[in-house]
Amino acid sequence: MSKLAFRIFAALIIFSLPSLSCTSYDSGKPIRAENYTQTIRVACIGDSITYGYSIKNRIKDSYPAQLGRMLGDEWQVRNFGVSGATLLKKGDLPYWNQQAFKDALAYNPHVVIIKLGTNDTKPQNWKYKDQFAADYADMIDLFAELPSKPRIWICKPVPAYGERWGISETIIKNEVIPLISRIASSKHVPVLDLYDPLSGKPELFPDQIHPNAEGAYDIAKVIYAVLTGKTWTGKFEPTGLPQMLIIGDSISIGYFKPLQEQLKDIAVVTHNEGNAQHTAHGLKKLDEWLGDTRWDVIHFNFGLHDLKYVDARGRNISVETGKHQIHIDQYEQNLDQIVTRLKKTGAKLIFATTTPVPDGTGFRAKGDGAIYNRAAERVMEKHGIQINDLYSFALSRLKEIQQDQNVHFNQKGSELLAEQVAKSITKALEE
Q1: Within 13 Å, how many C-alpha atoms sit on residue 375's CB side?
Q2: What is the arrangement of strands in the sheet containing 268-271, beginning at the earlier edge strand?
Q3: 8 A C-beta contact, residue 334 and residue 379
Q4: Burial of 405 (0-12, 13-18, 19+ CB in 10 A)
Q5: Is residue 263 located within the same domain as residue 188?
Q6: Number of structural domains, the chain?
Q7: pLDDT per position as a tens digit, 32-77
């Protein structure tokens, strides 16, 4: 083939790619943080390698998490990775159909890093390879059309050190990477090369496909340099599991053990010593419970003891003859002081609403839980605290999970509450 014929052939390949809205502003130059009046939102789009699959503490050691620490407080990096996801719309797990994709668009990022293509090399997916370029172009355009007008980088996948799960290193190197380069040229977006920097490092890929925490660090380091124009000089330091404190009464004591089990590979979960009781008791004991530990997340609740009816000596008594142990006005004031103190720890805070009070408990009145929760919600809204609405969760299934005429839950109930708490904690750790 003559040189002229080859040039014409190459041009036809490039210009046969979809040319929707081009992101010409995406020059690939480093981001200048001083040009932004708000925190720079970075969305990391990808598969299990972005998600952090096989990394023990993926919440802190996935590449987006490590990138966020490198970039610092002026940036906010979110992980939108989905294990097994494909770029191809006809793949066996299209990223397009995942909630993470919807969440990433709603995030309205200023920067988008797309790292997809590894799972597309599986035989059942790569049979649609003729649609890879068009689907990639569509994804670029969807992000480009967001109100934030993000800067977009598309990534060459990391190498695969074995043919596992149907993933093909040969296709990654010889077909996917050249396609990505052509797509970048057609759409005027820069390419971020993760293939060469991670090549020749099989020790960072224990299962041959997924990088370990140190491999994720190398990915983060490359992206940091591209985004900032600077070289990251820090050393890789694997983090321990996040430290998580539960402050609560007998309800949290009930779900504590199943929660520990559910989060055993995600966080070290500790419960305050004993029963947290009411808010006045909590104020007295708070410093003792917090201790010297640097908590990552604190999930706390007060209410069931505050709304109890007691006599003048503080003993439990009937609703008809007693008064609330902590009046609702004082409850609100105490919670405000508790939250103010907890915020000083720097931990991510989650308040759990008080679970429902059923009929027949003797010294608690049905409906008081909802009233005290409204007061608590005012405090949390004032301080911008995340709420884990255990009240609503439990209310719809009380007959199934709560003991008869008792505020406590059966084993199934405690396990279900633990699942809800685990979800709220995992979400907080990922933000």
Answers
A1: 22
A2: 268-271, 243-247, 297-300, 348-352, 386-388
A3: no
A4: exposed
A5: no
A6: 2
A7: 988 899 999 999 999 999 999 988 888 889 999 999 999 999 999 9
CB 238 within 8 A of CB 215: no
Residues 157/114, Cβ–Cβ less than 8 Å = no
Q: How confident is the model at residue 5 (pLDDT cuts 50, 70, 90)?
A: very low
Answer whether 195's CB lies under 8 Å from 156's CB.
yes
User: What CATH number corresponds to the domain at position 331?
Assistant: 3.40.50.1110
Contact 284, 308 (CB under 8 A): no
- In this structure, are 303 and 174 located in the same domain? no
Cβ count near 391 (within 10 Å)? 20
Q: Give the separation between CA 338 and CA 363, rounded to whole angstroms.
A: 25
Identify the CA nearest to 337 among candidates 414, 281, 410, 411.
Answer: 281
272's tokens? 């305050």
3-state SS assignment for residue 228: helix
158/27 same-domain check: yes
Residue 222: what residue type? V
Residue 111 placed within a domain: yes
Two structure tokens written together for 392 = 């609503």
Task: Write the CB contacts of 191 (distance below 8 Å, at least 6 apart in sequence).
Answer: 153, 154, 155, 156, 180, 181, 184
Pair 196, 289 in one domain: no
331/329 Cα distance (integer angstroms): 5
* Alpha-helical segments (H) within 303-410: 328-343, 368-383, 390-395, 398-401
> In Å, what is the CA distance from 245 to each residue of 267, 345, 425?
10, 12, 10
Give the H or E element holding residue 351.
strand 348-352
Asked whether residue 238 is domain-assigned, the answer is no
pLDDT tens digits, one per residue of 101-159: 999 999 999 999 999 999 999 999 999 999 999 999 999 999 999 999 999 999 999 99
Q: Provide the domain limits for residue 106.
A: 16-228
Are the beta carbons of 325 and 309 closer than 8 angstroms? yes
In order, the DSSP letters of 90-135 are TSSSBGGGSHHHHHHHHT--SEEEEE--TGGGSHHHHTTGGGHHHH
CB 81 within 8 A of CB 150: no
Query: pTM of the predicted model, to two decimals?
Result: 0.65
